[in-house]
Design goal:
Length: 241
Amino acid sequence: MLEQREQTPELMDGDGFDADLAEASYRFIERTNRFFGGISSVRKFIRRQLKINAGEKPLRVLDLGSGGCDIPITISRWAFRRGLPITFTCVEKNRHAVNHARKRISEAGLSSIRLVEEDVFSFLKRTSEIFDCASTSMLFHHLNEEEIDGLLHALPRVVEGPLFVGDLKRSAAAYCGCWLYTLCSHTGVRMDARTSVRRSFSTLELERILADHPAVSDSEVRSHGFLRIEGMAHFLKYENF
């Protein structure tokens, strides 16, 4: 079952993803990110980029497939408390996710997060903005290999620094852990969470995707606990590939 990536779509990728399931899903994702390293791994990446940026200007972070924006919100609060200059541009196409995120951003009183309701690929195609770095959290497993290839080709035009990739890890341990963790969850959440693991990547697969891509100059991938996988890719200059 876990030898290859599953292609079955998640409920949240379909037309039947209603407001009630969306609310349950994004609350569940928020808990998962908080307890299983989703937030801490992105914060570590952002901390490193802030040191490189040296505080000369706000660090401009492009966050793709932001869902309910729980990670940008948490990191923005963390940065604000420490006086660290940072702005997020969060791109998300799902209207339920955008509504949830807009409410959470408003409740947090954050002006450093800009939310764009748009498909990631159309945004990258049309924007003329330049960002210091980019991040994705649990986006890659929603994409097929052709879409990932297109994303990696598109990013160097608008991102000067590296891309952080955080996602679930496809492994027996991750699937068993997910199965147990979701036993008492909403039925739709339970189905999507387990499908997510089956759609995800092994460490070796993500290593190959990033290392073999013509737009990537160097990359690194590692496991983060039993459930997650994370990678970082540095890009060649846009005109060099």
